[in-house]
Write a structure and sequence with these properties.
Largest sheet of chain A: 5 strands, mixed
Strand order of the largest sheet of chain B: 1-2-3-5-4
Structural class of chain B: alpha+beta
Order of helices and strands of chain A: HEEEHEEEHHHE
Structural class of chain A: alpha/beta
Number of helices of chain A: 5
Number of strands of chain A: 7
Largest sheet of chain B: 5 strands, mixed, barrel
Oligomer: heterodimer
Strand order of the largest sheet of chain A: 1-3-2-4-5
Largest interface: A-B, 65 and 75 residues
Helix content of chain A: 25-40%
Strand content of chain B: 5-15%
Order of helices and strands of chain B: HHHHEEEEHEHHHHHHHHHHEHHEHH
Chain lengths: 255, 488
């Protein structure tokens, strides 16, 4: 009798503990449901990498109110890069579009990083992440869209193929003095551009700054690695750096 | 005897394999982290999981149960805090030009390019270089370029950022200038020298299998064939390979003549040394490290005269790796290795009959299906059949191939003959595998139902390794599976 009672008591306790066990998991699920997405520091992604012992590395800070456009830096100015910050505006297919402060001499990828990175709709081919920035610049990251489509009247979201001249950091950049939609002359039609995936050495030498050696390097690269999948891939060719790429960007096509 | 006075039975639950519960708790909290749960909150899921599992599964709750469970959950909390904190990204973005020099510690194909991992003075960086640059492991590489954070492509299921973070870097250098020179004495240079020798001397199949087993390098053609057969794990250095090396060395040192020369403790130390040398020579993959740590734990237990639990050893190895580098939790190699090892250990805990053991490969296939299909999109069904034969066959073929390849490797005249025999054996295997895969040419794509079945088999088998298979265990496994599905 006593044994039966104990056995019954034990089975009830077992069921109670089983129920508490379920409650633990329910609580865990509830906590996760409530707190998911609350941690906003994740997107920067920089973790396992080392702390960089390099120049200006102050963390970018998001500006809530839009400050007045800062004046362009001129070559005659001498303040140190560490002391100076640029105010930059980014729109389009980034996680958090807005105005950011970044160290001077920053590049586009740093601004994109500060804005939380590209969204899944962004077209990474149409932006040059290595392009240098300027104070007060507006960067627009376009969404993926068919190449050579006709830009709308406002020029909003226009593809980058009709590039501004090489003096501009990149076709997707909008400086206070340069409206992208204006086209500002010098736009190269896709038909007139040199196709780096099919051009001969002679055709490649028509590009600014490309001599016989670099043309040969492009052909060698194409032979060993296949077609160029993006214009940025030209950076992998020996002899083509960021500056040279910017110089030829508007004059090359991939198909 | 009253049930609540039943003494704490050493052969059950947390007393049998306490670290398994810790591993489950830490894993649960790490699963929550990518969902952008604050790290403190994610860490608190670990003790909840430990308590939940103990209360769900434990039918016996002696007087020491609650202090023991509390201690375990507290430990799980500390470990989860440590791991989750380690996953927090630093807030600084890479800035400016990086100019540094370092040793190439990894070089592997990456699409049409070669991915190169450089250990430099300011940190570890990834570079993707053209193959014609001929950068090899062990080289000293000076580079100048901009650093960018590695990101996954939105249109790909492969998470490149996690892959490289698990290998110690999250930064890729866009090089503007590079210079290469031969490095000093290092394991990487040994690897390169051995790789060159294997590439130059052996016929294709022997070459591919030796590269895979000794250096963790995959021959693309061989990798494609094994992917088709569903036996890719044979090419990835894991517990299977490490176990073969240790078993071979231990068998050799346990021979009567050797035992007279070398005492047992010295033999254990020698095998331990070989174990770590092989693990590092083979590239230090997560699966190899996990196996090495597990075997080392068993050796230490043996030296101390303690009887080891396979499940506890696997859990210990997995936890150590997570504490060292929490990013490994997101590495598919680490996951597959831990899942397979836990499952096999659980079967070993039950000391199942010999005839059931071949079925373990079927269990492993099913248990790893959710991960494999989620990562690679599909899993070949032929793998279920082929693995029944492949594992025992390769446990003979790999050592035999190493022995037959030795004369050629050492440059002994006529060494091509035994190497040719090994090539013939691999060719025979290839024919059989192709025939078998033509009988079952289908691939199973990821499906929630199949994934749930695979997960259920895994959880139930592991639970059955530490608890008797009763109604409570089955119900507990079902609830844990449901939680895992909802969280994952």
């Amino acid at each position: 009798m006593e044994r039966d009672r104990n056995s019954q008591k034990n089975s009830i306790t077992g069921i109670v503990f089983f129920a508490i066990g379920i409650a633990c998991f329910l609580l865990a699920g509830l906590i996760m449901y409530i707190f998911s997405g609350k941690f906003v520091n994740v997107p920067s992604g920089m973790k396992a990498g080392p702390a960089l012992s390099l120049s200006s590395s102050s963390a970018p800070s998001r500006e809530t109110p839009l400050p007045p456009p800062a004046s362009h830096s001129s070559t005659g100015e001498t303040p140190s890069a560490e002391a100076k910050q640029w105010v930059l505006y980014i729109t389009g297919e980034v996680v958090s579009p807005g105005v950011y402060r970044l160290p001077s001499e920053s590049r586009v990828f740093q601004l994109v990083e500060a804005a939380g990175g590209l969204t899944s709709k962004a077209d990474p081919v149409q932006i040059n992440l290595a392009s240098p920035l300027e104070d007060g610049v507006h960067v627009h990251v376009p969404a993926v869209r068919p190449l050579f489509s006709v830009p709308d009247a406002s020029g909003e979201g226009a593809p980058s193929f009709p590039s501004p001249p090489s003096s501009s950091p990149g076709s997707f950049l909008r400086t206070p003095s340069l409206s992208f939609s204006s086209g500002r002359g010098g736009a190269i039609s896709p038909e007139a551009s040199v196709n780096v995936n099919s051009a001969t050495a002679t055709e490649l030498q028509k590009l600014p700054g490309i001599g016989p050696a670099i043309a040969r390097a492009i052909l060698e690269y194409r032979q060993s690695n296949g077609r160029f999948s993006s214009v940025e891939e030209l950076l992998k060719v020996k002899g083509i750096g960021a500056k040279k790429l910017e110089a030829i960007r508007g004059a090359v096509s991939l198909r | 005897m009253r049930m609540d006075e039943v003494p704490f039975v050493a052969a059950e639950g947390a007393a049998r394999s306490p670290l398994l519960f810790l591993l489950a708790g830490v894993s649960f909290s790490l699963t929550a982290f990518p969902r952008r749960t604050p790290f403190m909150v994610a860490a608190f899921l670990a003790p909840l999981t430990v308590w939940g599992l103990l209360l769900l599964f434990s039918e016996r709750r002696p007087s020491r149960f609650f202090p023991y469970a509390s201690a375990l959950s507290f430990l799980a909390l500390l470990m989860s805090l440590f791991c989750c904190y380690g996953l927090i990204p630093e807030s600084t973005s890479p800035s400016g030009m990086i100019r540094d020099e370092g040793t190439v510690i990894l070089e592997r194909p990456w699409g049409g390019r070669r991915a190169v991992l450089v250990d430099a003075s300011s940190g570890r960086y990834l570079l993707k270089l053209a193959p014609n640059l001929h950068v090899q492991e062990g080289n000293r590489l000076s580079f100048t370029g901009y650093a960018t954070i590695i990101r996954s492509r939105p249109d790909s299921s492969f998470q490149e950022d996690l892959y490289w973070r698990a290998r110690g870097t999250s930064l890729e250098i866009m090089p503007e200038s590079l210079s290469r020179k031969d490095g000093g004495f290092s394991l990487s240079r040994w690897r390169t020298a051995l790789r060159k020798r294997i590439l130059l001397v052996f016929p294709p199949r022997v070459r591919g299998y030796l590269l895979a087993a000794l250096l963790g390098v995959r021959d693309p053609d061989l990798a494609e064939a094994h992917r088709r057969w569903g036996t890719s794990h044979l090419l990835a250095v894991s517990g299977f390979h490490v176990g073969l090396v240790v078993l071979g060395a231990w068998s050799l040192l346990s021979m009567r003549k050797m035992r007279d020369i070398l005492p047992r403790r010295a033999a254990l130390l020698a095998v331990s040394g070989l174990l770590w040398f092989y693990t590092l020579l083979a590239g230090g993959a997560p699966g190899a490290f996990r196996a090495a740590l597990m075997i080392q734990a068993l050796f230490v237990g043996k030296l101390l005269g303690r009887k080891g639990s396979p499940l506890n050893s696997v859990s210990l190895a997995a936890i150590i790796l997570l504490l060292w580098r929490p990013d490994w939790f997101f590495d598919v190699g680490w996951r597959l290795s831990v899942i397979a090892a836990l499952l096999l250990s659980a079967l070993a805990e039950r000391r199942l009959a010999f005839w059931i053991l071949p079925a373990s490969s079927l269990f492993v296939w099913l248990a790893t299906f959710p991960q494999i299909s989620a990562t690679f999109g599909e899993a070949p069904i032929a793998g279920m059949l082929l693995n029944l034969a492949a594992l025992p066959l390769f446990s003979v073929l790999y050592p035999l191939c190493c022995i037959l390849a030795l004369p050629s490797l050492l440059g002994i005249p006529g060494g091509w003959l035994p190497a040719g025999i090994a090539e013939g054996l691999f060719l025979l295997w290839e024919q059989c595998a192709d025939t078998a895969s033509s009988i079952l040419p289908w691939n199973l794509s990821w499906h929630p139902l199949f994934a749930a079945i695979g997960g259920g088999i895994f959880i139930l088998t592991v639970a059955g390794g530490v608890f008797p298979l009763r109604g409570r265990t089955v119900a507990g496994a079902g609830i844990f599976l449901l939680s895992a599905v909802l969280v994952g």
